[in-house]
Amino acid sequence: MDVIDYRVGREVAIAKAKEVIARGDLVVLPTDTVYGLGADPFSPGAVDRLLTAKGRGRDKPSPVLVGSVADAAKLAEVIPDAARALMEEFWPGALTIVLPAKPTIGWDLGETNGTVALRMPDDEFTLSLLGSAGPLAVSSANLTAAHPAANVDQAKEQLGEKVALYVDGGQCGGGEPSTIVIVGEKLKIVRHGAIPDSEIARFGELED
């Protein structure tokens, strides 16, 4: 288990994180909301390690962080107008958008029912890492049902040696998880989070 402060050496931290991800191990990294637990989404073993580390079943698949809307378009079968408008308004930021996944991707994030939950985080380091390493499966860096970690020490207390690398970026500014929206004929909010329901409702009719 290594800990590296990216504020001391950004490029070294990115290179180390890429190395850990490439070999299928787990990395804890800062986001704009809470600290995240990341893995290579294209490695079934890495995704399984992520879910196991959290004590989470395959019925709760991991979201995927992307570095741009263009990267999201490579993973989603289609981006409806409402989804694109939400991305333009709230990305990078605390909004996770659930869309049909391209069947040709060939990954296994768990029981997704053919969907992928996408988010572009508003964090300079993590966006740089995503731009270099590509999309990452990232869930909050905590045990299931425990409080999300707002700093590296809280993540280490919960996940310990299960994680190969902890990237320290100080205290996360958000503290509240992202709002999760399924985009279909209507907008369905499946997790109420940092972005209020009233803001989401500006982009389409909300499903009860």
**What is the mean predicted local confidence, pLDDT?**
94
What's the shape? globular
How much of the sequence lies in strands comes to 15-25%
Summarize the biggest pleated sheet: 10 strands, mixed
The total of beta strands comes to: 10
Strand order of the largest sheet: 1-8-2-3-7-4-6-5-9-10
How many structural domains in the coordinates?
1
Structure description:
A hairpin with a 6-residue loop joins strand 2 (27-29) and strand 3 (36-39). The chain is built from seven helices and ten strands. Helix 1 (10-22) packs across helix 5 (124-133). It has helices at residues 10-22, 44-54, 69-75, 81-90, 124-133, 152-159, 197-200, and strands at residues 2-5, 27-29, 36-39, 64-65, 95-100, 115-119, 136-140, 165-168, 179-183, 187-191. The protein is 30% helix and 21% strand. The chain has one domain: DHBP synthase (Alpha-Beta Complex), CATH 3.90.870. By secondary structure, the protein is α/β, with parallel strands linked by helices.
Features:
208 residues; alpha/beta; DHBP synthase; ten-stranded mixed beta sheet; 7 helices
Secondary-structure topology with pairs:
Layout: E1 2-5, H1 10-22, E2 27-29, E3 36-39, H2 44-54, E4 64-65, H3 69-75, H4 81-90, E5 95-100, E6 115-119, H5 124-133, E7 136-140, H6 152-159, E8 165-168, E9 179-183, E10 187-191, H7 197-200
Parallel strand pairs: 1-8, 2-8, 4-6, 5-9
Antiparallel strand pairs: 2-3, 3-7, 4-7, 5-6, 9-10
Helix pairs in contact: 1-5
